[in-house]
């Protein structure tokens, strides 16, 4: 080890001579936090490429840990390529901006994730990109609304808040027949409930792009934001990658570490929250204040047959830990709010997939131009089930209903 004592202490605190020996291996991968990436020499500088993940140039373009997480998310989704983004919405935005230009049109389902709708209506239209909406439960309606300018169709299984499960293969067939790119919000499915690039085991029915809010189940802690964009198409990946780079999208090293640490347990958490949600949703079907339960895995819920075909296929299937109910119209919006406030284990909050159970009341009329035809009259309340004991959650729901609705 060379003698560094002749240098100033300030220099020695930065330019130490220690280099760790090779061969260390642990269960969890190391975290890399870097904006500046150092090169051994100018030849290495000029030879390094980040685009194909063969090297490192700048922290924004990736580190060993972020490359690893991208590889694992690609494997989870059944994709060949993956890019990380600072949030699920950022992943949606990059996808739209990369694949759409002036004069193009994007079509979204009526029950699309609200911020995706806002992006299309408030921002994309300012740049000359048109947007329209289709009935996700009617492939013919999608076909009728597609025009020569349609370049991108968003798919969402199940729909946001109202939980209708569409006939994904039928919607994809329509888009494939017109040569239109499909992008699927796979946050609910999480890469576990179904294979987005091999719907029904058929790659010819797969979507083109899968966007995933890693904020939810992959993180599992309700304490970070991250998104991912996955595809099997190199051409699409490169288009999205260029836009991703131009917008300066990057993720924090500590957040990458947290998701890598949480991923191995995700399937266990997902299944546990799914089981608990089904049990509570089934119980709520028998409660007098509830006019309708909206859960794809329950018979009678809109799109249940489509969920069965895609996610169950002869078994019990997977369905995440989130569902909604319609509180009977005889109760006022103020009473529904009071019910939500009376819950003790369920807390008011939007982002789900963590250990804490959540509740959120919605006013659909303010959110959508078209009200779902299969929806009972009343107020929609969404529940996201965490990891608490099911009996504790059931007792909490019961006491709140008795306190506010008197039943």
Search tags:
407 residues, seven-stranded mixed sheet, 12 strands
Short note summarizing the structure:
This protein is α/β, with parallel strands linked by helices and 407 residues long. The protein is built from 14 helices and 12 strands.
Task: Explain the overall architecture.
There is one protein chain. The protein is an alpha/beta fold and 407 residues long. Helix content is 36%, strand content 15%. It has 14 helices and twelve strands. Helix 3 packs across helix 9 and helix 6 runs parallel beside helix 7. It is globular, with a radius of gyration of 24 Å. The N and C termini lie far apart (77 Å). The relative contact order is 0.12. The model has no long low-confidence stretch (mean pLDDT 94).
How is the secondary structure organized here?
Blueprint: H1 9-12, H2 42-47, H3 64-77, E1 81-85, H4 88-99, E2 105-109, H5 114-123, E3 130-134, H6 139-145, E4 150-155, H7 168-178, E5 181-185, E6 209-213, E7 227-231, H8 234-246, H9 253-262, H10 266-284, E8 290-294, H11 304-312, E9 322-328, H12 333-342, E10 347-348, E11 358-362, H13 364-367, E12 378-384, H14 390-405
Parallel strand pairs: 2-3, 2-4, 4-5, 5-6, 10-11
Antiparallel strand pairs: 1-7, 6-7, 8-9, 9-12, 11-12
Helix pairs in contact: 3-9, 4-8, 6-7, 12-14
Which segments are poorly predicted (pLDDT under 50) over 5 or more consecutive residues?
none
Strand content: 15-25%
One letter per element, helices H and strands E, the order comes to: HHHEHEHEHEHEEEHHHEHEHEEHEH
Question: In percent, how helical is the residue content?
Answer: 25-40%
Tell me the strand order in the biggest sheet. Answer: 1-7-6-5-4-2-3
Question: Given the C-alpha coordinates, what overall shape results?
Answer: globular
Distance between the termini: 77 Å
- Distinct helical segment count: 14
How many strand elements? 12
Report on the biggest sheet: 7 strands, mixed
- Please, what is the average pLDDT? 94
Structural class: alpha/beta
What is the alpha-carbon Rg in Å?
A: 24 Å
């Amino acid at each position: 080890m060379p003698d560094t004592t002749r240098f100033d202490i300030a220099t020695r605190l930065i330019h130490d001579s220690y280099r760790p020996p090779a061969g260390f291996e642990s269960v969890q991968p190391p975290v890399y936090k870097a904006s500046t990436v150092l090169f051994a020499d100018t030849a290495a500088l000029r030879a390094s490429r980040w685009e194909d993940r063969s090297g490192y140039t700048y922290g924004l373009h990736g580190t060993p840990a972020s490359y690893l997480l991208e590889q694992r998310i690609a494997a989870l989704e059944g994709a060949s390529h993956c890019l990380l983004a600072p949030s699920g919405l950022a992943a949606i935005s990059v996808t739209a901006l990369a694949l759409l230009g002036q004069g193009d049109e994007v079509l979204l389902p009526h029950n699309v994730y609200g911020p995706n709708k806002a992006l299309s209506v408030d921002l994309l239209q300012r740049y000359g990109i048109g947007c329209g909406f289709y009935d996700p439960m009617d492939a013919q309606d999608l076909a009728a609304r597609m025009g020569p300018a349609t370049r991108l169709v968003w798919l969402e299984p199940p729909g946001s808040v109202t939980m209708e499960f569409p006939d994904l293969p039928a919607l994809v067939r329509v888009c494939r027949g017109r040569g239109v790119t499909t992008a699927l919000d796979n946050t609910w499915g999480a890469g576990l409930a179904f294979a987005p690039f091999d719907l029904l085991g058929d790659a010819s029915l797969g979507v083109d792009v899968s966007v995933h809010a890693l904020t939810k189940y992959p993180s599992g802690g309700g304490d970070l934001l991250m998104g991912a964009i996955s595809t099997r198409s190199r051409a699409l990946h490169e288009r999205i990658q260029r836009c991703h780079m131009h917008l300066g999208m990057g993720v924090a090293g500590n957040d990458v570490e947290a998701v890598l640490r949480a991923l191995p347990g995700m399937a266990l958490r997902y299944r546990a929250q799914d089981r608990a949600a089904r049990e509570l949703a089934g119980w709520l079907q028998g409660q007098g204040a509830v006019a309708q339960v909206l859960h794809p895995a329950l018979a009678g819920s809109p799109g249940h047959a489509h969920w069965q075909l895609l996610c169950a296929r002869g078994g019990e299937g997977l369905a995440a830990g989130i569902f909604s109910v319609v509180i009977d119209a005889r109760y006022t919006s103020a009473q529904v709010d009071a019910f939500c406030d009376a819950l003790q284990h369920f807390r008011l909050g939007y982002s789900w997939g963590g250990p804490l159970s959540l509740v959120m009341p919605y006013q659909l009329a303010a959110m959508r131009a078209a009200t779902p035809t299969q929806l009972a009259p009343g107020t929609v309340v969404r529940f996201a089930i965490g990891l608490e004991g099911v009996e504790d959650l059931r007792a909490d729901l019961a006491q709140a209903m008795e306190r506010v609705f008197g039943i």
